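Q: Could you fold this chain for me?
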Amino acid sequence: MITTAKRLDTVEEYYFSSKLREVRQLMSEGKSIINMGIGSPDLSPSKAVIEAVAAAIQDENGHGYQSYQGLPEMRQAMADFYRDQFGVEVNPNNEILPLMGSKEGIMHISLAFLNEGDHVLIPNPGYPTYTSVTNLVQAVPVYYDLKEENGWEPDFEALEKLDLSKVKIMWLGYPHMPTGARGSLALFEKLVAFAKKHNILLINDNPYSFVLNDNPMSLLQVEGAKDVALELNSLSKTFNMAGWRVGMVLGNPEIIDAVLKVKSNMDSGMYYGIQKGAIAALKCDKSWFEDQNKIYRRRRELTEKLAEKLNCKVYKEGVGLFVWAKLPEGIESAEKFIDEILYEKHIFITPGTIFGSNGEGYIRFSLCVKEEKVQESIDRF
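A: Sure. Below is the predicted structure, expressed as structure tokens.
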């Protein structure tokens, strides 16, 4: 029998991959499941995006292999977006690398910089892929705590007490997933100083900046951040283009070039039409964000009512695509709690435990659910 690589022993199937099979099985049995678990936008991209792609399909020169670095006009659109939205200047020629979704960037960056045995600082709670990729490249996850009493921000005194001699990369993501904590420029300044002090590559995963957030920020706004930091961003949540797989990584040319060495051996460029759609999206004006947030605001208000119906305490300061809520006193297992709701009320909610041990005692609701379905969820109780 052919055996799998040992690295597969370090990871499990992604939670949503396996859990959604369970959900689909219930649906096949005739159960009317309301999925409030996964953050896949159910809204459409703008009309301009669809029209740009439709036009590109007719371009007879648009069906061949594309540049590993993407169309120059797409990189320029990304640079313009960062200038207009964050006040950050980046060179489109060598400080931006388009990605097929920011998730692949996590793997590319890890392959480019991590050797076996290197240590990686990972937030707890945080995006599970940071841990999976770290294990797959045979580096060592080192978790740093994020707790509600500290506003879901790092404790720098605790960080300084860690053995940082082998740490090569530090992952963070503000606005934070899953809690929705906003972060601040003051926090980013501390993180950049910490990374410089300990010679750590700092990476901010930043796909949620424009959802229900009146103050979008970039780590690259901090003076000198490019010396030690990268930022990942994505069109998935901001422009309802999750399935299109368009992201970007931004930073100084030497670091970007290292990531490109990996990426150029992994794919043969992004489809021309998708790039044209991305350019149109990045040119959307302020009204796009305002209209999207009107919808998400109404959904959040209803979702908070649902959480309160479950006697959960909502983290009101949260922004982004999710509502983070603390379970009632006496509930010992978030996973048992959500399974009871799934099988009794046919509503799927995410347990906080999949994001790390500090997620125990919490659950997460997605806002990618139409208002009438959220109201139906409330009515089921």
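A (continued): The two ends are 51 Å apart (CA to CA).
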